[in-house]
Amino acid sequence: MAETWSAEWLVEQAPDAVILADREGIIRVWNAAAERVFGHSAEAALGQTLDIIIPERFREAHWTGFHRAMAAGETKYVGRSLPTRSERNGEPIYVELGFAMIHNDTGEVIGALCHARDITERFQEERALRARLRELEGTSEPPRA
């Protein structure tokens, strides 16, 4: 029996948020995992700018980097994950992002693809462990003579 595979079906089944933004940063693809991670339905997110998931204080830096990557046709983050702050319905969360530049058949950059995973719980646990380690290291120093 032959299986029918489509890019749309694969994106929708992805366990991580998949977001595709065009050259202007307008959201064109928003899968079910993006709905769970960021709290916006596809209906609400499609056609909006990426500002719906970027905390206000980071927007200027984001757009500077975004436009630089669009102009260059590449990003320094290809093949790497970037942990950063984001928003879920206006509330802060931490996400791990992966990026790819999308080119058309002639090689022109037409957008950017992002995979995102919510790492808020892991980030908070690691922060608590680091604080506990600092506390233990501070109390375990030998007395000075």
Overall CATH architecture: 2-Layer Sandwich
* CATH level-3 fold name: Beta-Lactamase
Give the count of helical stretches. 5
Rounded mean pLDDT is 90
Work out the number of β strands: 5
Give the terminus-to-terminus CA distance.
Answer: 79 Å
Which spans of ≥5 residues are poorly predicted at pLDDT below 50? none
Structural class comes to alpha+beta
Radius of gyration: 19 Å
Number of domains: 1
Helix content: 25-40%
How would you characterize this protein structure?
- The chain is of the alpha+beta class.
- The protein is built from five helices and five strands, in the order H-E-E-H-H-H-E-E-E-H.
- Strands 2-1-5-4-3 form a five-stranded antiparallel sheet.
- A hairpin with a 5-residue loop joins strand 4 (91-103) and strand 5.
Question: Which terms summarize this structure?
Answer:
5 helices; globular; 5 strands; alpha+beta; 36% helix; 145 residues; Beta-Lactamase; 28% strand
What secondary-structure arrangement, pairings included, does this model have?
Blueprint: H1 7-13, E1 17-22, E2 27-30, H2 32-38, H3 42-45, H4 59-72, E3 82-88, E4 91-103, E5 109-118, H5 120-139
At a glance:
The chain is built from five helices and five strands. It is globular. It has 145 residues and is α+β, with helices and mostly antiparallel strands.
